[in-house]
Structure formats: C-alpha cells, structure tokens
Structure prediction request, 320 residues.
Amino acid sequence: MAIDILNLKPTTVSRDLRGKYVMVYGNPKVGKTSFAAKFKKNLLLAFEIGYNALDNVYAQPVQKWAELKIIIRQLEDPRAREMYDTITIDTVGIMYDACEKFICQQNGVQKISEIPWGAGYTATKNEFENTLRHITMLGYGLILLAHADTRKETIDNSEIEFYSPALNKRCYEICNRIVDVIGYIGIEWDENGESHRYLYTRQTPRVVAGSRFKYLAPKIEFGYEQLVNAVADAIEKQAKLDGATIVDKAEKQAEEKLDFNKVRAEAQELWTKLIAKDQNNASIILKKIEMTMGHKMKLSEFTEDQCDLLALVVDEMKTM
Prediction:
C-alpha cells in the first residue's frame, strides 16, 4: 500500500477552486446550475434537469442510486480523472432521497422508518457519506447544489425571512462536514429597482452559511469568477497574516485503487520465496493472516472485497 509517512510533504493552499468542496443553495432559477457549469472540467450529475438552457456542459442524468454507483466506478478510471476536475451534484437533497430509496429497496420496505431499530437511517447515512467522501478521495473537487428553505417570522411587527439549505438534518450534517464553503445566493434590489445577486458565506441570525477560509469576504457578488477572486484574496491574506504556503494550482491527490489480481499475485510470489527460504515461515505468515483477519484462513481464501486486508498481509510479508 502506497503509504509512507516518512516522505510526506506539508499541505499547501491553492488559489484556484480545483479540488475545493463548495455547497451553494438558493431559490429555483437563481443561477445555481449556471454557476456550477463555470467550473473547468466539470461533470454535472443531474438528479434534476436544470441544464436545458446551458451550452457545452458535460451532464449525466441520474435517476437511481444504482446508476450513481456505476458512475462512481467509472470515476475511478484514470481516464475520467484526466477528463474531469470537479463533480457537481444537482441537487444534493434529491441525491439523499435516492440513497434512502436504495436502502429501502435493499431491505424490502417502502419507508426507511420500517427498518427496525433505526438501522435504515444509519445505513442511509453511511452509504451517502461514504459516496461523497469517495468522490473527494479520488481527487475530484465537489460542488453540491441545494434549494433554499425559507421561513418567515414576525418580529417587532416586521416580517423577517430566514434561509437555510432545504436538506434534512442528517443530509445537512454530512454535507457540512465535507464542504469548505456553504454559501447562500440572495437577491437584493437597488434604488433603481434593479436586482443584484450575492453569495453570503458567513453565518448570520437569518442565513445559514460558513467557510473554512477565515478571511473569505462574508458577502460576494454572485458568480464563478467573483468567488475565484474572493477565495484568492482570502488565501493571499492568509499567507500574509498566518504564513500559509500558497500555490497557484492544487495537486490532484487521488485515492489509490488496489488491483486485487496484482496484490494476490504478489502475495503468492512472496509466499513461495519465504517458504523456500525457511519452511517455518509458513506458520508465521498464517499467524499474521489470523491477526489481520481475526480468524484463521489461507492466502487463497481472500476475496476481492478483502483486497485492502490482503495488502496489509503483503506488507507484513515484505518485512520478512
């Protein structure tokens, strides 16, 4: 396994948005999909069709979670990593609903609450979170689009609107942990009656938002280039005030996909060499397998789903 903590390089912060994780939310037709389409080398996974008026967009409609799992497998292909830098989910709320429906189908129920002991909610959370995390670990940037949930309250005889992503609590908590920026797209009118769109990136009593970039402006004119420039300004300030190391482009650091056949062949080759060297090595290797797996088994009994565990055994054999 390609892990070597003795040769790690310190992290850097890139000025561009490649490799960043962003969630933006707003009312229908406010420009969420158009915004995402501006990201270079972007693949739009459309759980709802919001790209009909957009030109030159790589868009894949997704109706079922099973279709998404096929897409995720294709994203593991090095050719896909060359073709795309960013994956956009439109919308993440519908994506979560598709995940929940998938778990219901697996368990033969109509509603997630019908799965005993809350196991359905846990399975949905794990499947959804692991899928988003896998996309990021493959080295892609991630854009999550969501509708806005608006509620109105009367305070001091004035009607006040409050804005948050239209996501259930479990979905929001997962997204919040993953993304670097949560931004609300709001519209304001000037004295001439003309509308202007802004992206709010900081939490207020009326707006749910937030950012890992502590110097990012709390209110930005809405648009791709405007966000790029605002992030760059925030990072330059971070470099000046905090001494952060800044680079122009982020390196793609993709999760390594192990080839089961190669790992198994390496294990068999090591077994042959070690046994030829000393017959007693057989019992040592079998003991290492038992310690890794928690029970006795042979090298030949490892399955493809256990490839990561077999790779651990191979590392142990290499030390011999």
